[in-house]
Every structure is written in structure tokens, then in C-alpha cells.
Design a protein that fits this description.
Subcellular location: Cytoplasm
CATH superfamily: P-loop containing nucleotide triphosphate hydrolases
Organism: Sphingomonas hylomeconis
Helix content: 10-25%
Pfam families: TsaE (PF02367)
Largest sheet: 7 strands, mixed
InterPro entries: P-loop_NTPase, T6A_TsaE
Shape: globular
Distance between the termini: 11 Å
Protein name: tRNA threonylcarbamoyladenosine biosynthesis protein TsaE
Length: 148
């Protein structure tokens, strides 16, 4: 499923729409080159869940946790850009937190196959500066995705 996102605001709006549909246990992966809008999607989602102020990119922290009352449900914003070996994920304890949190994972290709049931979103920068969103929609997201 492809969709064109016209500008940065449209990318953030995607995150806002996703926030209305997420539940604890959901995993959303965000792939694409640097500057494609992965963090903008995450920021829109976090803002719509109640986060005041701008969410920092978790590039250096790797995992940026958010919990109520800061947001309406627990979220782990994860950036795997600096992960060299998928075995490093065990040290982060993400599998334990996944059941009660929403996981937003940037650069999931650094841990291939780790989240097979994720809503997998890929952003591509087109020559005219717009973004192409490609979604791999698992069964658990089929009905919800139609609302996007």
C-alpha cells in the first residue's frame, strides 16, 4: 500500500492518525534514509498521545521511554541506527516491555526479522521532495489501517 506525503506536516499527521489507533503491544517500524521523516512520524504520534514539547530523536540513547501521565499509554521510541549486532537487542530488554508498551522502531533493518508482526512503514524521498509511504500491514492492523 503506497501513499504520497506532500511535506513534513503530512508526515507528522500520519503519526497523529496512528496515535488514535495504537494499543499496548503494537510495534510500528519506520524505515527509510536519513531525513525521510521517520522521527517526524514518531513525534506526531507522541504528541497526539499527549507528550508536551518535542520528542528528542533517540539516536544516542537508543531507547527513549515515555509513560503515563506524560502520554496516555507507555511508548518506547527506539532508534537502532547505532546497533551493529542484532544480539545487542537482548540487552535493551525490549521483548519484556513490548506487551505493555507501543514500540516505535526506527532503522528496524538493523534487527532483521525481529518484529514480524509489526506495522512496517517505509518512507522514501522522491525527486520532488515529497515522501512515498509504503506500508506492510499485518493481520492485526488490517482493519485499523483502513482508517489512515
Amino acid at each position: 500500500m503506497d501513499k504520497i506525503l506532500g511535506d513534513a506536516a503530512a508526515t507528522e499527521q500520519l503519526g497523529i492518525r496512528l496515535a488514535a489507533l495504537v494499543a499496548a503491544g503494537d510495534v510500528i517500524t519506520l524505515s527509510g534514509p536519513l531525513g525521510a521523516g521517520k522521527t517526524s512520524v514518531a513525534r506526531g504520534l507522541l504528541a497526539a498521545l499527549g507528550l508536551a514539547g518535542e520528542a528528542p530523536s533517540p539516536s544516542f540513547a537508543i531507547v527513549q521511554p515515555y509513560a503515563p501521565p506524560e502520554v496516555r499509554l507507555p511508548v518506547l521510541h527506539i532508534d537502532l541506527y547505532r546497533i551493529d549486532d542484532p544480539d545487542e537487542l537482548e540487552e535493551l530488554g525490549l521483548d519484556d516491555a513490548a506487551e505493555e508498551s507501543v514500540l516505535i522502531v526506527e532503522w528496524p533493518e538493523r534487527a532483521p526479522g525481529h518484529w514480524p508482526e509489526a506495522l512496517a512503514l517505509t518512507l522514501e524521498i522522491l525527486p520532488n521532495g515529497t515522501r512515498r509511504l509504503t506500508a506492510e500491514v499485518p493481520a492485526a492492523w488490517k482493519a485499523r489501517w483502513q482508517q489512515i
